[in-house]
Fold this protein.
Amino acid sequence: MGQYTATQRKNVRILLVGDAGVGKTSLILSLVSEEYPEEVPPRAEEITIPANVTPEQVPTSIVDFSAVEQTEEALAVEINKAHVVCIVYAVDDDDSLDRITSHWLPLVRAKCNPSLDGEGDAEAEAEGDAQCEPVRRPIVLVGNKIDLIDYSTMDSVLAIMEDYPEIESCVECSAKTLHNISEMFYYAQKAVLHPTSPLYMMEEQELTSACKKSLVRIFKICDIDGDNLLNDYELNLFQRRCFNTPLQPQILDEVKAVIQKNVPDGIYNDAVTLKGFLFLHCLFIQRGRNETTWAVLRRFGYNDQLEMCQEYLRPPLKIPPGSSTELSHRGQQFLIAVFERYDRDGDGALSPEEHKMLFSTCPAAPWSYSTDIRKSCPINETTGWVTLHGWLCRWTLMTLIDVVKTMEYLAYLGFNVHENDSQLAAIHVTRERRIDLAKRQSSRSVYKCHVIGPKGSGKTGMCRGFLVEDMHKLIGKEFKTNVVHCINSVQVYGQEKHLILRDIDVRHALDPLQPQEVNCDVACLVFDSSNPRSFEYVARIYIKYYAESKIPVMIVGTKCDMDERRQDYLMQPSEFCEKYKLLPPHLFSLKTNKKELYTKLATMAAFPRFQAAWILFYKHRLVQLWESAHLRQFGLMTEDPKLWWKAGLGVAAATMLGFIVLKTISAAGAHSR
């Protein structure tokens, strides 16, 4: 997969404009032929310089404009197709210099109309930057014929630059002597690939707010130990990640010395502070080394508008129908490292303040701390704070139901940089469900269980009970927050699996369910055993949606601590389950504080066509058979070894019988399918 860096433009288009006779055409011809042309046509043909001969390794088109041969409408089209406009004046002609502000700069501004834009800004529009702000092309001011004077016009030009922030740079050159010809086109190319205006405000001599915000995020991501400083180790990692080369100790000392000299609090304990980091980039830009800051920004996913690239946030992920998405081992390890970095007090939980700081590199937290993560995942029951286990559970939930959002936030948190790879390395796409069904065993580690039943049936309490150690604490509690999902881990035959419970209300028995409400790994149909009209809801749902499906189903009767009422339906729950070959209704109550229900649900999801419910049921029956047929015969407290030997033979016989029964059931099930 490799590391991802936000890409710059794949080509550069330069337009030269200016008064007649200033030498626009001569500049182009001198660059191409490397000699001054004796005869100059009114206008040079468009030329393209191959990437391998340009400093930035980007193919560059150079376009000439002639007022003699072209109309003003044609000029408008060319301005909007161009990435950068070079306004050429003659250094020995004051009128051509004055017309920069009186004519050319206002003209270029007026003609920069997105609706006329051709190829020039198609990439920018794709990024979504066509907003209310005016579109302006970067400008390079070019003073030609420097060979004719012995003074400079730079003072006058610098004054113009202060009033027009789109002017990126200025240069004096000579088409006749070839002085600064290559530099002029390099500055034009640089104005497109490494523009100054998004980074720096000339008038204030300060970084722009967008640039500061981006660099602050980068600083936080690189601050591995979370002490608000970049030590030598962290600076070296930063250097390697951005420039693929180590930072030599001598150069590092020189950089620190420069920071210390200009920003007294830029260095602390021989490490670089945030102020020092921002100053360093400000210094790069002031010295014309924009490309250094841009290299850092692009490595961390920023585009030319200092927004996170969509390709960086959302790398393409192919998910076949019937497959699901989970966190890979690398994804889990990265999230554990992030958690531990921001768990400042080392108590194994994130306080609200620590949680807020953790997501300070993101536009906002992906969930609400008080009404979402604390209600959907396991927490520290003393403080109410999110534990490491709960943290991983919440990310597991988001990865299953919204993997694109997971990838976005992994990028915001710096996965791409720390892992030197795209977020795809943090995601595992499971095999298709049809393969799981064919093999009668799921390879997944995350299962989705839809808990469906009428309002007031106790299903929300059942879901919340999955998150706590002592379910007695939930008795009598009113669940006001509308949290749909609850997630925790369970053991299935010695392997850790995550089970997600989705709470789905059915207000009326005939209410239709949407496909996304039906499809899941295992369905849990819940009725209130103390309400005589409750079972009808789940019976109708099963017959309509699940009787002919391959989705395992368990029926649960809640509030079993209360008086069980006869259900007003054609069949009682146990008769219904027997008819449809389902496991007998599982009776559940928060007061019993028993959690085997969740393990059963996860087991049924893990073995979707192996009749897991029947296996559990018959195992229970075999144990009863073993107890009644043998232990009672020989006595529970006997110490006679011969009697225990006979008991062992009886157990073996019962076990063998059990395997035969199970094999028969499985074969019968396969035959019926």
Observations:
- The first helix runs from residue 24 to 33.
